[in-house]
Amino acid sequence: MTLPDTSGATRRRSRRNSRRFGAVLRFAVTTLTTFLGLLAVTFFIGRVIPIDPALAIVGDRAPAHVVERVREELGLNLPLWKQFFIYLRQVLTGDFGVSVLTTNPVMEDIKRVFPATLELASVGTLIGAFFGVPLGVLAAVRRGSLADQIVRVIGLIGYSVPVFWLALLSLLFFYARLHWVAYPGRIDIAYEYTFTSTTGLFLLDAIMQGEWEILWDLFRHIILPASLLGYFSLAYISRMTRSFMLNELAQEYVVAARAKGLSEARIIWFHALRNAAVPLVTVIALSYAGLLEGSVLTETIFSWPGIGLYITNSLQNADINAVLGGTLVIGAVFVTINLLSDLLYRTLDPRTRSR
Fold first, then answer.
1. Degrees to nearest 5, angle at CA 239 with 148 and 329
2. Is residue 9 predicted with pLDDT exceeding 70?
3. Distance between CA atoms of residues 352 and 346, nearest Å
């Protein structure tokens, strides 16, 4: 009786485990290097801008010896490399310092304002994906037609028009003239002190608590800034969807499906779009990250109490700790979503797992 040779299977399993370990190790090294680079860039930019954190704390009219004492307490008299390692140690423990503007720890302020940005970006991404994907599919299927040209023009405007101009114009038209939406802000002042939020996500809390009147008020406040962000997300998503669909519709499996007599709708929505969905997930994730980091102007114009408005107010008041902390958090979120989207792409597409 001949025993089966298991040495080949063992070697293959060992190679697979080695590749997986190598991939995990590369991912960990890439993540660590990226975050260290982000931390270094954020720190040194905060040190080279012409704002003295000591003066921001004590004021311009404070005596020189008081300013110098504060600088020593903050460690600003140390060499930059020593300041960086002190800052690195503090950040790793979750300490971003104290905000001069609010007198609260910066991390507490970020925990308070970040859910508003998360909610706004999430609704904007949903709007962008809901309309962007069908428009991109339509443009690809009707390539060269009037519908294709209209979709491409919509995308071009989304890429070209300054966000602050479109935001001001939309406020003038939909709020000041038509009164379709509520005034800038997140919630009406009548509900601001009676509505209790447990998660920081007002829409979710209102639904969980069954506060339908407050939910309608929240919707009237969020719909305009979210639609504005959704439009810019739509421009990117529709363009990439069109590109992916054109590539899929030119593949041989589409020709074979048509030869088998499958309906055009089934070929487009159940075959071509399914294959295009793999890279499209990454596109939507990156669009979401872009809205999280790029909503500063939108939050400022619409008085949306998110991290973008927080950073703007802190910068205007020379609150360097708050600016650096907010910038670092936004950058970390963007990098994390970027890395996770790449990992998700590799998981969904088996062809990339061996690379």
1. 155
2. no
3. 5
